[in-house]
Amino acid sequence: MKTITRLHFLKLLLAGCAFAPGLATLGRGLDQLRGERVGWARLKTPSAFWKRHSGSDPVLMQFFRRETTLNIDPTWYVADVENLTELCRFPLLFSQGVDLVQSDSGHTNVAEHIRRGGFLLIDACCNPQITGDYDDFLRRQIAFLRVAVPEAQVVVLSPAHEIYRCYFEIPEGRPPHTFYQNVYDPQKAAHGLYGLMVGRRLAGVISLSGLQCGWDKMSAPPGHDVACMRMLVNIYIYAMMQAS
Amino acid sequence: MNPQFDWQFGGCLRGFPPHQAWAIVAVCAVVGLAAVVWLYRRTLRPLSPGARITLVGFRAAIVLLLLLCLANPARLENDRPPVPGRKTLAVIVDRSASMSLPDARRSTRLAAALRVWNQHESEAAKAFSQIKFYRFATGLITAGNLNEAVDAAEPGPETRLYSALRQALDANPDTIVCLTDGLDTTGNSRDELTGEALRRNVPLYFVAGINQLQPARAGEVMDIHEIKVPAKVWRQTQFAASALFKVTSPQNSELPVELWSGETRLASASLSVRPGQNILPWTVTVTAGEAGTMPLEFRAGKDFPLAAGCTVAVADHKTVDVLYYQGALQWGYRFLRLALAGDADFRLTSILNPALNVQVSSGTTGAPTWPDLPETADQLKRFQVVILAHVFVNQLTARQQAALVEYVNGGGAVVFIAPDSQAAGGFAGSALEQMLPVVFASAPADDQNPDAGVLSVQIAGPQAAQIQSLPDLKPFALPAGTSHSAVSAVFDQSGDGLPQYVQNVAVRAVKPGAEILAVSRPTDGSEPQVLLARQQFGNGFAVAMMTDLLWRWKLSLPRDSRALERFWQQLLLSLAPVSGEGLRLTKLTESPTTNAPVALQVTGSLAGAPPKVVLVSPGKETRPLTLQPAPGEENGWTASFIPTVGGTWQVAATGTGNTSARLVFPVAENPASAEMRNQPPDVDGLRQLAEATGGELIEAAPVFQPLDAAVVSGLVHVRPLWNSSALLGMLLGLYGLELIVRRRFKLL
Lengths: 244, 748
Description:
heterodimer; A: alpha/beta; Rossmann fold; 7 strands; B: alpha+beta; Immunoglobulin-like; about 30% strand
């Protein structure tokens, strides 16, 4: 166990006593800058895994509220792909993948949400039994979106893109990947983020990184959960602040 | 009004009188201190006297601070302490000519009012420690007593009622009683007086002077007092054209009004006229046609003997530069940008408050984000509209607020958007609020904020997906009785209907002169809340929008709907100032009569060159009028003429750039003074004014309570003093220091 000297301990104690009131004041100031309340929703699809890792979504919400002034609801909501009214209550929809949506109404609803100005975030789970081959997963998402939103294009977001630095600085402009059982996968590591562009508007992001697995504390290096949540905060804030 | 401070203890001490509570605290303190000394009397190791005193001192300080926290002291601030002997009453007597005209029974209105007031003099003397007397006709004059106020002066030629009451308010009385017939003959606004009395919290009471005097003759004195039409508008947009009609009438009647463009009648209405002096506004929403010149003319009266017109330049294209400033993270920005992105005429530059720590490129032009809102009006002038979205008061410095006020005063427009009480309430009493059309209620304390502490109670498991409990959309509604005005210039009432919102905040009041554009539509029978209001401030506009940025409405609409786009674009276009001033003709003489000079004013010829003015007599004889530069006005001229015959006269002005203005008005053979036309007393008007300020119309029933019986209750604020983080820090710090010192002396 790492030990510290007595002198260091005393310094920390004194510093804590001295600055605790100030920190409380600062935190209170942040809390007073919150905007209007918004909910975090997972897209309910025919997939059996549509709500996998949702148990840790409140951890992400706490991270949002701690690190930003976003007034996000601390719990998570369901947005059924078959219910357009439900989808349109949320400006951003989080999905494990849309390729399993087969119905015409599901296609139409996802497209309508995007065309009304909504944002779709797809994040692949790191478990190979769920996602399978990452290249194939990406192809399936693109195929769905080509059919549903033919005017949209999926493009690679370069490491210099603002999405990697609009709030947190993401090292080297590369999303943090969660590797299943912490075993490095070069095929997965090669992927960055993909943007769904409708004209000049970023209408969605496809991530193969398993960000949700990261904040759900799957086996990963220390600090990986925070790195994944930082990436997600960046995607969310970029979606919010950048219409075109 | 200075707040009064008091102290109170909490917990079990709350019910005790202060001196007993202090005594209990003191006993506890003595016991605690004695225990500390006793505990340090013997220690594990021998201590020097200095070390013992230090340790006892630390422990004693902790005990005292802890005692202070447990005693729960709070400071009481009472806004309105009862201060006996402080209340002042101002009694004001109307000494205008109309108050002294006797009726068939030789009774004057002044005598009638005095008879009523005499019944209340004794109760007023008991209710007020000091009574001051004034009289007025053209100006307010102090009098030594009631007799002096009634007898000392000749009746005046005018009744400057509202002006006199405003002067009386400057003397800071607690209550005002005015003996009058309510016939202000100046045309001043009653709303301004109401607002001033409310601001000063001074109720107005009136004693109406009523007699049986019959009107001297039937008929009305009327005038088109002012017309407001933009000099320039943009093709196929809607704009508001308004006129103020000034009518003096002996009885209830109707005033027919019309708006014409060339040979086309655009709108007509019939305005209700009360007995006495009336200032009647009428606003029409006009749709501009194609580029060119659009003539507009307001007409009024039976057979329309009055007319005032001007031309509007309809321009082809316009670029609106919008500065958007955001104080909180929310989705409205994305959807506002989407709404404006579809129209190349809008250029959006965005500033995100530095505290948000967001760095994104911004603006339709791709310009980088500005670091913060400018602190000078000059930097703001390149924008036609500034949007302040969900801003908190501590985000704007005094200089930034001053710059915004100066910017609007100089012709800019500000849209202030705040959907919650924390954001809006912080601006109560601020410089920014002064220019806005609404008065905010103060921000609630943190414990009243529904968002406060929400984190601690909502940690959900995997099965805790929530039922859709997010709030529903609520529609905007037009204010009751609104069927015209700039409202329809902003809202597209067809198709997708009026905007819908989720969150809004109630305002404390709407300022006099503000225009309410939209209100809420409560389903529980409560009063509608103001959602959108605007007012002219200086040369510009200030708008308050008390809802979210309508992004949820956009998400609820089919993708083909352009309703949100139309709303934002119309709102911003209606506010964007235009350069130049249109040609205007104003008649300065109130009631023209034969063989008396009629003064005219001409303003705003676009290129600054003097316009040509032609006079047309009732017999259709024309002659040019010579213009003289108006003193102190760059683009202003005056002219006058003496009409020799009664009838309808006409003045037409032609300026550069194909602009023109026209004025048609009647000239009477006999002088018509509003003061001497034997108008009936405006009792209803007096009653409304009194009730609007918290007073009443004094009749037979008692109205004032004796001073010692009056309950002067005020708002008491309880501010706990024990719950500060500084005190907690000090306690922990002292305890930590004591532990360290004990360790130093090897007692641990």
